[in-house]
Amino acid sequence: MSELDQGVASIIGEVLSGSERSPLPRDLPPGIWLIPYRSRTLDTPDNLNGRLLGGRPENHHVAVLTATTQLAGQLARDIFGSATAALARFRVHQFPGYPDLQQVLQTLESAPRLGCTSAEAQLQTLLHQGGLRTLVQPIVRFPDGQLLGYEALTRGPAGSALERADQLFDTAARCGLSRELEIACAWQALKQGKALLPHYWLTINLSSAGLTDDALRRALGRPGIVVEITEHLPLNHARALLPLLDELRAGGARVALDDTGCGYADLEAAKALQPDFVKLCITIIRSLGRNPALLADLAQSTATLKGLGIEILAEGVERVNEVEILRDFPVDYAQGWRYGRPQPIETALPVA
User: Fold this and answer.
1) Which of 163, 273, 285, 286 is deepest in the core (most CB within 10 A)?
2) Of the candidates 179, 191, 182, which has an alpha carbon nearest to the alpha carbon of residue 219?
């Protein structure tokens, strides 16, 4: 419990470094940590919670929840080991407003227990016997739409309970198998990607946990591969990736920062990691036509990224009005249903 207390305190210090915190409630049951906090709304671009790519208030709470969940899972693995951590999982909740302490404890007590049941057995079968499917979605040059490459996307068996990506990866997270699933998806994408014509690049999603697999990292470190960093953690964790990213780049691969604008301190992470390009979060793209207030933030943030020498990809582009709005910004690439839906490689490739 002492190790857990120290680890949780460290996590909270990192993910809430830009928030106002209240003293922790006393006399909590063992194994429960409750941290009241309030996010600040700051406009300074150098602050970890500043502006669009540093965590807008509407994105901040989601980013805190995501980062806390990822770091808590790592803490469990560090203390208990991977096998036991799959059973002794942390559950992270957020309670908006000012709930009464007893109300919080009752909610936690009545929450359904995390379990894998038959879904874990299906997932284990996919990991060890195959059955994962790799689809690809076009990435084009913006605004002329010239095909440049594809993003590899994974699906479970058609018609199964794990067919959709959210079902597949949520099950892996509940069962403590996220890293194993990521690595399996990446290896399959590399295998399938051999069918691509030489001048098209392939982007493959990977978290920091997946990047630590030496054999996979060596295989990814070659021309034509773009590794998309899929998690957005506090800055010191981002900096810890630098040696691994340098190794990928030394082999000829490029690096992208995925879902930029919906993660944790994204602008600061971009400054630290210096990716070849960032992928603007799909939520931002879909909100542009409905929320004109985003335009000034987007202009400021994209200008900062271009000043760092980082190219920009707009993800989730579906509508004509989104294309027209994005023409006013320094966007280099685009991806979304406007340019093609995910499909098997053999049907996605143009005729050579």
Assistant:
1) 285
2) 191
Give the span between the Cα atoms of 325 and 329, in whole angstroms.
8
Give the span between the Cα atoms of 89 and 72, in whole angstroms: 8
**What are the distances in angstroms from CA 174 to CA 110, 123, 166, 237?**
18, 11, 12, 23
Token pair for residue 167? 């079902």
Residues 288-308 pLDDT 10s: 877 777 888 888 889 999 999
d(CA 301, CA 46): 11
3-state SS assignment for residue 295: helix
Give the H or E element holding residue 284: helix 282-287
Alpha-carbon distances of 176 from 5, 72, 123, 179, 334, rounded to whole Å = 21, 12, 11, 8, 33
Q: Residue 17 and residue 180: Cα distance in Å, rounded? A: 31
CA quadruple 123, 126, 128, 133: dihedral, nearest 10: -140
Q: Does the predicted model carry a pTM greater than 0.90? A: no
- The model's pLDDT over 15-37, given as tens digits with 9 standing for 90+, comes to 888 788 887 777 788 778 888 88
Backbone angles phi and psi of 62, in degrees to 5: -65, -40
Query: What confidence tens digit (pLDDT) does each residue in 157-188 have?
Result: 999 989 999 889 888 877 778 889 999 999 99
139 contacts 313 by C-beta, under 8 angstroms: yes
Separation in Å, CA 282 to CA 76, 261, 336: 31, 9, 9
Name the nearest CA neighbour of 285 among 234, 337, 233.
Answer: 337
- How many angstroms separate the CA atoms of 243 and 20, rounded? 33
Backbone angle region of 131, left / alpha / beta, with phi > 0 → left and psi within -120 to 50 → alpha: left
| Cβ-contact 208, 240 below 8 angstroms | yes
Task: Name the DSSP letter for residue 45.
Answer: T
Q: Residue 282 is encoded by which pair of tokens?
A: 């799909």
- Strands 333-335 and 277-280, how do they pair? unpaired
Q: In sequence order, what are the beta bridge partners of 313? A: 279, 333
